Model the fold of this input.
Amino acid sequence: MSAPARRPAAPLDQDTFREAMSHLATAVSIVTTTDDHGRRWGFTAGSVVSVSLGPPLLLVGVDNRSSCLNALTGSREFAVNVLGERHRHLATLFARHGAARFDGADAHAFGPWPGSQDGPPLLAGTNAAYRCTTVNSVPAGDHHLVIGQLTGLVTHERAEPPLVWYRRAFVTTGDPQQ
Done:
């Protein structure tokens, strides 16, 4: 039996890299924070990575052109709200440039963390949510990498199928693990 044919490596330009990375399925989250004036900020993120278990650290990538960049890098706290398939409309809304993300009918979906009246907005009904204290922000090419230490955690035992970004589209993976 012969080995399958392999595509030769293409020149590494932005479009080629973007196309190659579209084959990497990634969980979809909404990252939220508040600024010094109490204004809520948020964006859809596919670049969320567990960095360390001890201490528990997360990394979030944010585009340098994002309207949320200054709020996120200047904030002492942020939250990562992990989306399920029913949050597809919010993922789309929070991915739009210049959108009034916390206005309108969905504004009530975000509230405070349990036992707290402040902090980054928590989206009700997510599969999981992580509250983080910002420990570092590092410029990296056309993004900033923001590292946070977990200070709060919300999970749901009966999580729904996760929302995933794959081949430039939101998809779901089917049934969640029981």
Q: What stands out?
A: The chain is about 10% helix and 40% strand. The mean pLDDT is 85. The helical segments are 14-21, 69-74, 88-95. Residues 71 and 81 are 17 Å apart (CA to CA).
